[in-house]
Amino acid sequence: MPAIDTPSIPDVLKTAEAWRDAGRSVALATVIETWGSAPRPTGSHLVIDSDGNFEGSVSGGCVEGAVVSEAIEVIETGKPTTLEFGVADETAWRVGLSCGGRIRVYVEPVA
């Protein structure tokens, strides 16, 4: 399976800055911990706006939808959160990592 092309960290951060400068509300999701064969390394980013638009990747497509949904709530409340995904947790039937790994993602509003 070919790798999904992911913008580099500076590109995603530039996108977040450009979106904020345009008046959009933005959250940043960052992979903070991985176990097993997680598809993205620690430090990978996903930037999300309040309309659900996003750029970057935290899992190669496995859990981005769930992260975007949580990020919209983070934008609305202003409260950061930490998400955990993997085959052994309660979200395994809704979202999961096809590679069998686990990841923790920190989602924070961008001021």
Automatic annotation (TrEMBL):
Residue limits of the XdhC- CoxI domain? 19-86
Q: Which Pfam families match?
A: XdhC_CoxI
Q: What is this protein called?
A: XdhC family protein
Question: What organism is recorded for this protein?
Answer: Roseibium salinum
